[in-house]
Design a protein that fits this description.
Oligomer: single chain
Largest sheet: 2 strands, parallel
Number of helices: 4
Distance between the termini: 43 Å
Number of strands: 2
Helix content: 55-70%
Structural class: mainly alpha
Strand content: 5-15%
Order of helices and strands: HHEHEH
Strand order of the largest sheet: 1-2
Radius of gyration: 14 Å
Shape: globular
Length: 75
């Protein structure tokens, strides 16, 4: 389910229902397993989910890497 929903995002086939499924999965992980945040490790996910619209804490891995690279280059 996660893979097919992710591929829908990657190939620009996602619908509001697809994004809702991803949110529901994340909420389930948070409630069931006590996750404190959800890593958005696929760069495409950060285009459709973020802390403002997801309803849970997120960490955009690509954004973290870009900030670190930029900081290193400008130092």
């Amino acid at each position: 389910m996660i893979n097919s929903s992710y591929l829908d995002v990657v190939y620009d086939r996602s619908t509001p229902e697809t994004i809702d499924r991803l949110r529901e999965l994340a909420h389930r992980l948070i409630k069931r397993d006590g996750a404190e945040s959800v890593l958005l490790a696929g760069t495409d996910l950060s285009m459709v989910l973020n802390e403002e619209n997801a309803g849970f804490p997120t960490l955009d891995c690509a954004g973290v890497h870009i900030k670190a690279i930029t900081k290193q280059l400008l130092a």
